[in-house]
From TrEMBL:
Location within or outside the cell: Golgi apparatus membrane
Membrane topology field: Single-pass type II membrane protein
EC number: 2.4.1.-
Keyword terms of this UniProt record: Cell wall biogenesis/degradation, Glycosyltransferase, Golgi apparatus, Membrane, Transferase, Transmembrane, Transmembrane helix
Gene3D superfamilies with a match to the protein in the record: Spore Coat Polysaccharide Biosynthesis Protein SpsA, Chain A
A Gene Ontology term for the protein's cellular component: Golgi membrane
Pfam families named in the record: Glyco_transf_8
UniProt-recorded name of the protein: Hexosyltransferase
Top EC class, one word: transferase
Segments passing through the bilayer: 16-37
InterPro entries named in the record: GAUT, Glyco_trans_8, Nucleotide-diphossugar_trans
Amino acid sequence: MYMNFTARNYNSRKCVYYIVIFDILINFEIIFVGCLGKKLGPRILGRRPESSVPEVIYQTLDENLGKNELQGRSDIPQTLEEFMTDMKKGGYDAKTFAVKLREMVTLMEQRTRMAKIQEYLYRHVASSSIPKQLHCLSLSLANEHTNNAAARLQLPSAELVPALVDNSYFHFVLASDNVLAASVVATSLVHNFLRPQKVVLHIITDRKTYYPMQAWFSLHSLSPAIIEVKALHHFDWFTKGKVPVLEAMEKDQKVRSQFRGGSSAIVANTTEKPKVIAAKLQALSPKYNSVMNHIRIHLPELFPSLNKLVFLDDDIVVQTDLSPLWDIEMNGKVNGAVETCSGEDRFVMSKRLKSYLNFSHPLISENFHPNECAWAYGMNIFDLEAWRKTNISNVYHYWVEQNIKSDLSLWQLGTLPPGLIAFHGHVHVIDPFWHMLGLGYQENTSFGDAESAGVVHFNGRAKPWLEIAFPQLRKLWTKYVDFSDKFIKSCHIRAS
């Protein structure tokens, strides 16, 4: 980013140079023209200087340092105080002064960049790993499932099974392999619903998590709400023939394993900005290759008898009655979602298609507009009747295949970009009250604003069940965890 103060253009590093120069030279009563573009001497020392900074200083600061020029150097000042001491002792001319200054500032910049990247790497590792407490919880519940018949209940009970396909109920779908996260979503949903007896929550999980998930909801009833727990292999459609999403994931995983050489290669990149590196690290998260994340594209096939449902991610918390979502007129659209290109929080709500898709690739630039508003997964209303009249699922798989053929170059890694393409033209924008985003990566989110939202979404690395969660926001999630529960206590899961 460049700032035009005078006839010269100065980037942020140059302004650092000039601030440092000013701080140093003022000790020698030398006044110069800095990045403010005017002489400051008369105001500061009460007299007019005869000269400004020599041009050789500007020229030297504009020169680029070699890639390895600073490696192994022990003569570079580490602090401004050291620099000033050396300058007073050394009697440097203007050029040597500028060279030393450039070296010191560049070294500081490199160290700051590396520290930031290390922070992002540690967060990536923390967010990609399974905390031992959650692993303990799954093992404890699996053991309970084996030894306790009460942990093996049919969910739901036989007399409530007809409600699973009854469109007079409010149907929600949650796909998750995280028992604790699923329990918070379910508890917050039911506790805030005005008519919980009309709630049907379909929980989809994988084979390894099925027994722990069934045990938890068998032993922690949310009656009168109806809870169904099924593993993917329990769905007839999923076990018959080829499943496009699984085929695509298998190919995607092979390409992804070589993607940019993994996290080591990403961190080793010396040219990209830390935030770009952070985005690439986050994209390598295993969750992006999880069937739990991709399965939503097959909702019409998984629930052939339902007309409408709300799909919830497992990192959200429901804070209000969600029944009014069924009163929203979708106007023939398939996906009711919150847009993410406008709002008071410019950091979170500034996402357009160019934020996710690679518009330097002709396949993208020829079919989409970069400034078109994006929308969010996390809490979506899906009109399955309207969906079945479209080819959305086929479009999704077509573009996933194109991305694989293009060596994953069409978009940022993740499930939202192909969703943005597949649902293009099929999205009905809903009020942002229903879905507040960014609690997993925006530390400055106002607690008051978050508390007043209908649904809050901890999208980002700082998930509320991880130690790296933001403490002031985590309490919105922990209020729905019973820390006196024997399984929670035995696995040392704590509020903070």
